[in-house]
Structures are given as structure tokens and as C-alpha cells.
Amino acid sequence: MRRTSISPRDDWQQKVASAGLLFHSQEGEEMDRPYWDESAFYELSAEEVDTLEAAGHTLQQMCLEAAQHVIDNKRYAELDIPAAAVPAIEWAWENEPPALYGRFDIAYDGSGPPKLLEYNADTPTSLLEAAVIQWAWLEEQFPNADQFNSIHERLIAKWQDIAPYLSKPVYFAGLDNPEDQLTLAYLRDTAQQAGLPTLPILISDLGWNPQREAFVDLEERQIFSIFKLYPWEMMVAEEFGPAALETYTAMRWIEPIWKMLLSNKGILAILWELFPGHELLLESCFEHSPGTLGSYVRKPLHSREGSNITVVKDGVTVASTGGPYNGPSIVQALAPVAPFADNLRPGASRYPVLGLWMVDQQCCGLGIRESSGLITDNLSSFVPHCFL
Amino acid sequence: MIRSAKVTAPLLASVALSMATGCRKPEMQRCVDEKNRVVDDSFCANLPANNQQNQNLNGPGGIPFIPMYHYYYGGWGGYGLGTMVGGGSYTPSSGHSYATRSGVTTRGGFGRSMSAGHGGGE
């Protein structure tokens, strides 16, 4: 695995924008390069891609076992999951309503086994970049090379698989911000290419009609099938949460609510309990547990986008971020990462996090985000990859 | 190998438009008859996809008439039954939010946890 400098394509901004990535160059004092950064790329070997693909499949099976363990042993409280959500979680787990996708975040530099950092199983983004934008980059820059990327085809195939279980149209709901709307538009596109009629709606426009005991759209039509790019842990805590839980079996929410078991950082501690010493895991435990880790990362169970993260090396805090997530936490051993040299700032380093995309239980693609420090957040850059 | 087929994403051009929309106060959403007079929301319940509801009834003298009810989005006028509306549309505008006369349907019950600028995805 190598990080190599390369000249960006002429007029790359227009090219990526025309494919939908409008926020390719975010502004801000903290950004020293575009969000879509094609001034460098990662080159992997076919063997390394095989290693990552196998790791994704193994981790998926381990995570499903961990979810079963949480359910069997009623460990919801440790994951800060409210009791009111449990019946819906258990119903969804038993009845397997449609699920679509997820993204493992992995620490990997090619020299050792991949290490799971977390599983974004409920609301992953950076999807268009991984599925489409970097593929177009590859076709222009390295037409004879390959890329770990069949995300687009897998998504369409998965929509086709689950179409019989969905009422139409399928609604796509999310917040009114560029990143989420881009992901929603792309996923709508894959659903429509699979033959599903779709409609967009802002998550704040979802209506609840208590007389009909139904969620409705802006035209008061009842919603039966909906993809929501909004985390379950927030949904169950908000005003409509009780209504969503009470009517859960009558609707098809994608992702299903049991995904909140896996998107919870507490699953990392559960995984370590179930598979201690596994080569794909980093030692993890709940914060209240007695730990012996000298170098670790503290992560709130529900933290997002690098917020409220603390990095401790040899007992000394070396990095931390603020944010709104102040609930219970886990601690996870610091990944043995080897940073890569920064092509734009001599002497500086870039820390990649590899996103392994899962669609229909299949590990089907890779997207790499990198940052200047140990914490990957929403200001990190997306860097394309290829393999030979 | 693990190559991707050519990707087409026809919906993406619409993203720019949706991104340009911001938060607005809810506008009026009223159920009206064929003369744009406000009627009770129950007449518009379970509207089909074309946002219209037809009823074949026999009027005085056996002459059939076809009252047609539909939602009316935005514009002037009020929520009062029998009052006239205008200046709006029979279809909602993307990114706008609406409030019905009866208030039976409430909105805004999801999406408040995320502060401005943060997304629901990660």
C-alpha cells in the first residue's frame, strides 16, 4: 500500500461536480486541501485488496454474532439503548426487514492485519465518492488499473432483491444539507435504476397523524417504506420516536432499527469480549471497566464524525475534539497505524481510514479518507485508490 | 475483476436545487373544493397520487355534479371553512413545509437533534 503524488486532472472540479459532488472544495481555515483530493492516490496490491475484502466478510459475521449476543443477553442498557426501543429491535432482528448497506472504518497500512475502528451500519455517507467519483477518476488516470469497487452494481442488485418487500413509492428522507442530500440523491438513483419509484422528503417534513396512526408525506399520503439518512438513536429520542416504535412493524424503515446495535461504539467492546485477541479487532472495553490500556482512544457510544474523541498515548492526551456527545463511552486501543508522507506539506503526515463498504452482506468496495491527525472528522479528505 | 459498470446518476442534477433550499416557516396546507373554498381536511384524507378526490353524487333534480377536493399549498387566505384561497399551488414545493388546518398531522418531530451544519450521515 503506497500513497503517491499525482497531478490532478485538468478541470477536475467541473468533472466531479458534474457527477454530483458539488462540495468538492469545502471552505474553512482548517482545510488545507480540497475535500476531494486527487493530488495523491493510494495504490494497493491485489493481495491487499483480497485481505481487506476477506476482513469485511469476517467482521460482518462477527458483528452479527455480537448483535445476537446483545439480544440474547439483554445488554441494551450498556449500549445506552432505551428500553422502549427493545421490542422493535427484537422484532426487526427476528423478521429481517430489508437492510441495505453499511461501512466499516478500518485502520490499515498494508503491513499488518486490518483493524476495525468502528462500524457505520446505520447512516454511512461518502458513498457517491466511493462508488462513482473515484471510479471516473480511475478511468481517466489509470484505465488499465483496477479498483475495489462494485458498490454501484451491488446497490442496484440489492434494491432489486428487496423490492418485493417494499411498498411503493419508497421515500428518501434526510436533513437539508449538501452531504446528506447528495447521498440520498445517489441512493434514490440506484433504487430507481432497480425499478423502484421513489420520492424525496426532508426528515423534518415527515408528518405524524395520530388519528390514522400513520406517518404521512406533505400531501398526507401514508408512508409505508422509507429510507432515512438519520440515526436511530436520535429518532427514538425525538418527538416522533414513540410513534415510530409503536408502528414499527407496519412500516419498512431502511436501515432497520436493529442496526443501532452495530452503529453503537459499544459493539466494539462486545466484540472484544466475544473474540478476545482477534487479529481484526483492537482491544476495547466500556469506559467503566477496569482497563490496562496505556494508549487508547475514548469514544462516546453515540459520537459521530470525530466529535468528542480523546486520543491518549502512554497516558498523555495528545488529541481531542469537542462536540455534543457526552454520554457513556468506550476506550479502544490505539491502532498501530503508520502514517503516509504528505505530498503537499513536506515533513507532514497523512493518516488514512479505510472505509469498507458492505452491501447485502458483501464487502464490495473501498473508500479512503485521510486527515492530518489521528482523528478523522468531517473535514478529512477523500483520496482515490487503485490496485494493479 | 472488481470493476464497476458505467455509472449513470440522472437524479444528481436535482441535488443543487435541493441544496439551495433552506429552512422556512410552515405555509398553509388547506383542503379546498373545486371553487377553491376551504373545506374540512377529512375530505382530502387518503388522496390518491394526483392529489384529487372525485365523488359522483346526484345533485338536486338528478343532475350529477362532481365535487373535487384537493390540497392547496401556500398562497393567501386563511383556514376558515368556506373562505377563498388563492396565490398558491395544488402541488407542494420541494423543501417547503406545510401545516394543515386541522392540525391533525404534525411535522418536525424528527430532525431536531442535529445542530445546524451537521448531517444525519457520517
Write a concise synopsis of the structure shown:
The complex is a heterodimer of chains A (about 400) and B (about 120). Chain A is of the alpha+beta class. In chain A, about 30% of the residues lie in helices and about 25% in strands.
Description:
Chain A has 388 residues and is α+β, with helices and mostly antiparallel strands. Chain A has helices spanning 12-18, 46-72, 86-95, 127-141, 151-162, 178-193, 232-235, 241-246, 259-262, 266-274, and strands spanning 2-5, 40-44, 101-107, 115-120, 170-174, 198-202, 207-209, 214-216, 225-228, 252-254, 284-286, 296-300, 310-313, 316-320, 329-333, 340-341, 349-359, 362-371, 381-383, 385-387. In chain A, strands 3, 4, 16, 17, 18 and 19 form a 6-stranded antiparallel β-sheet that branches. A 5-stranded antiparallel β-sheet of chain A has the order 11-15-12-13-14. The relative contact order of chain A is 0.20. Chain B has one helix at 15-20; strands spanning 27-32, 38-39, 53-54, 57-58, 64-65, 68-73, 98-100, 106-107. In chain B, strands 1, 2, 3, 6 and 7 form a 5-stranded mixed β-sheet that branches. The longest helix of chain B is centred in the N-terminal third of the chain and has 6 residues, at 15-20. The radius of gyration of chain B is 20 Å and the shape is elongated. β7 (207-209) of chain A pairs antiparallel with β8 (106-107) of chain B.
Low-confidence stretches of chain B: 1-10, 16-23
- Please give the radius of gyration of chain A in angstroms: 21 Å
Oligomeric status: heterodimer
Q: Total number of β-strand segments of chain B?
A: 8
Q: What's the overall average pLDDT of chain A, rounded?
A: 95
Which terms would index this structure?
heterodimer; A: 388 residues; alpha+beta; 6-stranded antiparallel beta sheet; 5-stranded antiparallel beta sheet; 10 helices; 20 strands; 28% helix; 25% strand; B: 122 residues; mainly beta; 5-stranded mixed beta sheet; two-stranded antiparallel ribbon; 1 helix; 8 strands; 20% strand; elongated
